[in-house]
Design brief:
One of its GO terms (biological process) is polysaccharide transport. By secondary structure, the protein is α/β, with parallel strands linked by helices. It has three domains: 107 residues, no CATH class; 186 residues, Rossmann fold; 218 residues, 3-Layer(aba) Sandwich (Rossmann fold), CATH 3.40.50. 35% of the residues lie in helices and 15% in strands. It has 26 helices and 26 strands. The protein has a seven-stranded mixed β-sheet with strand order 2-1-3-4-5-12-13, with helices on both faces. A seven-stranded mixed β-sheet has the order 15-14-16-17-18-25-26, sandwiched between helices. A six-stranded parallel β-sheet has the order 8-7-6-9-10-11, with helices on both faces. Helix 3 links the parallel strand 3 and strand 4.
Length: 689
């Protein structure tokens, strides 16, 4: 799935001279500029192909303008893009997108800009570009993306009928250069009240105002019995859907309202006004030839904005950046409240602190179950428990004390090494309902699968690509190196793989039927396939002596044709016709390879019509997903991923590319030494488990 950056290859990069400390000392902006083909310099432009770079229209703009005029070189304006980050720049979060405009800047609408030219030329969009624009708007709406994305996706409590008035920060250049000032905001509020006297006025404050970084135009003095100053960190798309009318000056939320199918009432002169998609109240607004919402999106998001991949330091596009933002927002949502963690082994605490630091939340660890519940209640914290370590009464006690309990487990594309060998995971699941391996109660994964029929074509295509990458790259949960296996079935024999499991694993304890041991699994499989070629593969943890589940060699000799140890599981799946399992994840991986899977237990992927089930599934499993829908629920919707190299939250595609390049990440020295000692004292595993 890897792609190589193309910018700057074979030719010298044009030089961009900058004169503001922000552009000099903000490494993310310099990296984006480099990924976009520029070489950032300090000094005096010397050649005609040199340019001067300025950030927006801040004070340093004049300095840059003077030098550009003096040296007779072009001036380039850099500014944040339209989907920027989780938190704001003033909160210290770098951007994932910028605009690089050689003509002007989009919010200075009294002068030319490349964005205006793109909108004018949008009438010449090709059919494929129109489809991409439609898909982009759909992605914004369905995933609730906006400029700053530190938003809870739960629908907020709102008045039955309300008018949305959008505030902005004082001194914002888009206001003064877009035909507005403080009086414009006062006039807008007055007009909203006048035109909707029977409706609640909901003033949406700006994220930087909510963070205490900048003041807005509306204060508590503007509140009356019919006016609400709304500062909840909720998705603006919930507000768009419910608002009777939307008022703005130059806010980007006005543009997003257009994408939501609304016609905002606009009091300034933003770039999106004057195209027939807004109710323009500014007397100086020029009316242009009409454009569609898709044409605006194509111009602003697909042509004008430069997107950045922070994991591989290269240029990206809107759709890939959207996936990055969704992954980072998921991590922010999980960690936005304080966390009390129970049942986390010592070596796991380091990566959990790192992974859950996205929202600067506090995480405290406890080895006492009652104390953990009480501590979570006292601090209004979430209670995170490693799923296999949850005491029997913890869920009931947490519910009694009104504490949110989240079960944590390894994801399905985990690492380049065993968890029992203390290898840091690249994916985890955080389940607020149950846990995926326990079929006795609903899990968040089961919920996703039951609703997978709602996935759109783009989501199914993404899942298909992930499934194809799994097979092509030979990916598995642990991605262990191994040899290939020589097998010699006769012409009519089917080849059946029997993956062994850890017999005291939680998935066996909760999801097995009558067949509960590896010995029973081998025997039951031979009963169904008496004349076929059976391969038994011990679980790596069991083979390493770290976990329970050994089947005696003399038993195997009488039941199977081959025992596969230290064999690459992905390669082995390419050699077999079927997989027989209790609840092993190998069964899921076999489905990705197009194999028939027989289940003697009830793993998460069974009971949906895709497997040959030997026990009855829970009545809750009513969906009949296709394979790509199952993949989307299991590998995209359910787990969260962290880049093995940077440790930052990321989409699954980043982990796939890292694993393709054998970049699994390295554990710390102490953890590596502990893993070696663990191997030496494997017989005493109970001491560290």
């Amino acid at each position: 799935m890897s792609t190589k950056p193309k910018t700057g290859q074979g030719t010298a990069r044009p030089r961009l001279y900058v004169y503001s400390l922000g552009l000099v000392f903000r490494p993310r902006i310099r990296r984006i500029l480099r990924a976009s083909g520029w070489s950032v310099r300090i000094g005096i432009p010397r050649k005609q192909r040199d340019s001067v770079g300025v950030w927006g229209r801040k004070r340093t703009y004049r300095r840059g303008r003077m030098i550009a005029d003096w040296r007779q070189v072009p001036m380039v304006t850099i500014e944040d893009g339209f989907v920027r980050s989780i938190r704001t720049g003033r909160q210290g979060e770098p951007s994932l997108s910028v605009i690089i405009d050689k003509s002007g800047v989009y919010f200075d609408t009294g002068k030319p800009s490349e964005l205006h030219d793109f909108i004018v030329n949008a009438q010449n969009m090709r059919p494929l570009e129109l489809e991409r624009a439609k898909a982009g708007i759909q992605a914004l709406r369905e995933t609730h993306l906006t400029k700053y994305n530190a938003n809870d996706l739960s629908p907020p409590v709102l008045p039955d009928e309300f008018v949305l008035v959008i505030d902005q920060t004082r001194g914002d250049a888009s206001i003064t250069l877009g035909g507005g000032d403080a009086n414009t905001f006062a006039s807008m509020l007055l007009m909203a009240r006048t035109e909707h006297p029977d409706k609640t006025i909901l003033i949406k404050t700006h994220p930087e105002t909510n963070a205490g970084k900048r003041k807005g135009h509306f204060q508590k003095t503007d509140i009356d019995d019919n006016t609400i100053l709304f500062d909840d960190a909720c998705s603006p798309w919930h507000l768009f859907d419910r608002a009777s009318a939307i008022y703005c000056v130059t806010s980007q939320m006005g543009l997003e309202a257009i994408f939501a199918g609304k016609k905002p009432i606009v009091f300034g002169r933003p770039f999106y006004a004057g195209w027939g998609l807004s109710d323009d109240r500014n007397p100086d607004q020029t009316q242009h030839e009409k454009r569609s919402a898709e044409q605006l999106f194509w111009a602003a998001y697909l042509r004008y904005t430069r997107w950045y991949d922070p994991y591989f330091d290269r240029a990206s596009d809107f759709f890939k950046t959207a996936q990055v933002m969704i992954a980072r927002r998921r991590a922010w949502i999980v960690a936005r409240k304080p966390i009390v963690a129970y049942g986390m082994r010592l070596w796991k605490r380091g990566f959990l602190r790192r992974y859950l630091s996205a929202a600067n939340s506090e995480i405290r660890f406890s080895s006492d179950a009652s104390f953990a519940v009480n501590l979570a209640r006292a601090n209004q914290a979430q209670l995170h428990v490693w799923a296999g370590k949850e005491p029997a009464n913890m869920a009931a006690e947490a519910a009694r004390q009104n504490v949110s309990l989240i079960r944590v487990e390894d994801g399905f594309l985990r690492s380049g090494g065993l968890g029992a060998a203390l290898v840091r995971p690249a994916s985890l699941v955080f389940d607020d309902l149950g846990i995926y391996y326990d079929p006795k109660r609903e899990s968040r994964l089961e919920h996703h699968i039951n609703h997978s029929a709602k996935l759109n074509a783009q989501q199914c295509e993404r899942a298909r690509k992930i499934r194809q990458a799994y097979v092509k790259l030979g990916l598995s949960k642990y991605n262990l190196d191994g040899a290939t296996l020589d097998i010699n079935p006769t012409g009519r024999q089917k080849v059946i793989l029997i993956p062994g499991q850890v017999e005291d694993d939680a998935s066996i304890l909760t999801g097995a039927g009558d067949v509960r041991t590896n010995k029973d699994l081998v025997w039951a499989t031979r009963q169904i396939y008496p004349n076929d070629y059976l391969i038994y593969k011990p679980h790596p943890d069991v083979a390493a002596g770290l976990r329970k589940g050994v089947v005696e060699r003399e038993v195997l000799n009488g039941l199977v044709n081959k025992v596969a140890t230290d064999v690459d599981i992905a390669s082995l799946l390419g050699q077999v016709d079927r997989v027989a399992t209790i609840t092993s994840l190998t069964g899921f991986e076999a489905l990705l390879h197009g194999k028939t899977v027989i289940c003697f237990g009830m793993p998460f992927y069974a009971g949906w019509g895709l497997t040959d089930d030997q026990i009855s599934p829970p009545s809750r499993r009513i969906a009949r997903p296709n394979l790509d829908q199952l993949v989307h629920a299991s590998l995209i919707d359910y787990p969260m991923y962290w880049d093995p190299v940077t440790g930052a939250p990321c989409p699954i595609e980043t982990v796939v590319e890292r694993f393709e390049n054998k970049q699994f990440g390295a554990s710390g020295f102490g953890v590596r030494m502990l893993a070696k000692l663990q191997g030496v004292f494997a017989s005493y595993a109970y001491l560290w488990r």
